[in-house]
Amino acid sequence: MKHLGTKELESDRLILRRFTLADAKAMYHNWASDDEVTRYLTWPSHASQDVTAEILQIWVKGYDETTTYSWAICLKSDPDHPIGSIALGINDERLEAMEIGYALGKAWWRQGFMSEAFERLIKFAFEELEINRLVGHHSVENPNSGLVMEKCGMQYEGRIRQSAFDNQGKLIDLFQYSLLASDL
Predict the structure, then answer these.
(1) Which of 27, 87, 109, 122 could hold 70 in an S-S bridge, CB 3.0 to 4.6 Å?
(2) Tens digit of pLDDT per residue, the chain (184 long)?
């Protein structure tokens, strides 16, 4: 696996770029403060734009590392206004495995934007980072996330019981999906 850090990526309708501190307002209003968006995530809705700004400071500083992979999802028609986020984390360096996570403002749900961003990240991860395995998880109560993973070619691997906490601190089961280099 090669580490290249967060590079700007494009798809037909989207630009995936590094976050900046100036993104706090859009991130807070478009998804981070929305209880419906964060309902199945592991972190709670942000109580204020200051919380979002603090998170962004950490993320922006993380770009100094070539092992940081965190993108703002932006429409090409408005590249300064993020509508969501998508990230890769190192799942297991030895297995050349990474894990994907994402969130999208509900105004952009069911329009194919997350699948488009996800597919672009798959291409980057397998072709440029040369990973062997991509893993994704979602709460068993959030089947729409699983539909995105399946649409992007990931295969369902099973239910992992009591393997995470939701954003209220409740122990939950996750469904796990994966995609291998040999699947492509």
Answers:
(1) 87
(2) 999 999 999 999 999 999 999 999 999 999 999 999 999 988 999 999 999 999 999 999 999 999 999 999 999 999 999 999 999 999 899 999 999 999 999 999 999 999 999 999 999 999 999 999 999 999 999 999 999 999 999 999 999 999 999 988 899 999 999 999 999 9
Q: Residue 73: CA atoms inside 13 Å, Cβ hemisphere, count? A: 27
* DSSP one-letter string for 52-73: HHHHHHHHHHHTTSTT-EEEEE
DSSP 6: -
Give the full edge-to-edge strand order of the sheet including 14-17: 9-10, 14-17, 69-75, 82-92, 97-104, 133-139, 171-180, 155-165
Residue 144, number of CB atoms within 10 A of its CB: 11
Indicate whether this model's pTM tops 0.85.
yes
For residue 29, what are its two tokens?
């209003």
